[in-house]
Amino acid sequence: MKTEESTNFDCVKFMREARRKNYEATKHLSGREYDEYWRKFRQNDPVWQRWVARQNAVKQQTSDT
């Protein structure tokens, strides 16, 4: 069952806005600063942390078999 909210989500608009925000946040950074920015982002982002935990669990399962 679709809700009104899900039918109004514009994926392309969402991605373009995310890219614009990322660009604005990083356009002035040097190469090392850029790498550090994303390293800190990954350390603090809960979605990224769940993904890493899932990947580690999969690796652990495959190494146990």
Describe this structure in words.
The protein is an all-alpha fold and about 60 residues long. It has 4 helices and no strands. The chain has helices at about 5, 10-25, 30-45, 45-65. The radius of gyration is 17 Å and the shape is flat. The mean pLDDT is about 90.
Question: How many H/I helical runs?
Answer: 4
The percentage of residues in β strands lies in: under 5%
Query: Whole-number radius of gyration?
Result: 17 Å
> What gross morphology would you assign?
flat
Instruction: Extract low-pLDDT stretches.
Output: none
- The helix content is over 70%
Total strands: the figure is: 0
Task: Tell me about the largest β-sheet.
Answer: none
Distance between the termini: 40 Å
Helix-strand pattern: HHHH
Q: pLDDT average, as an integer?
A: 89
SS-based class: mainly alpha
Brief descriptors of the model:
mainly alpha, 4 helices, 65 residues
Concise synopsis of the structure shown:
The protein contains 4 helices and no strands. The protein has helices at residues 4-7, 11-26, 31-44, 46-64. The mean pLDDT is 89.
What topology does this entry show?
Blueprint: H1 4-7, H2 11-26, H3 31-44, H4 46-64
